Structure prediction request, 61 residues.
Amino acid sequence: MRRKVCKDCRVFVDGGECPLCKGSQFTTNWTGRITIIDAQKSSIAKRIGVAQKGEYAIKTR
Ligand SMILES: [Zn+2]
Prediction:
């Protein structure tokens, strides 16, 4: 089964709510995966618009 990601944050979610925004809008329709270690120093983090470390999908639909 594909893992689900939050539609707003694009962070991977294992439980019933998003750890970042506490939302429950998920999608399994994502492509690409990236782990952000230090969002402040990561140009990729800036490019995909994430501000916290974690595991993210690059694109969701
Ligand atoms: Zn979220």
Summary: Residues 21 and 57 are 16 Å apart (CA to CA). The two ends are 17 Å apart (CA to CA). Strands lie at 4-6, 12-13, 26-27, 30-36, 54-60.
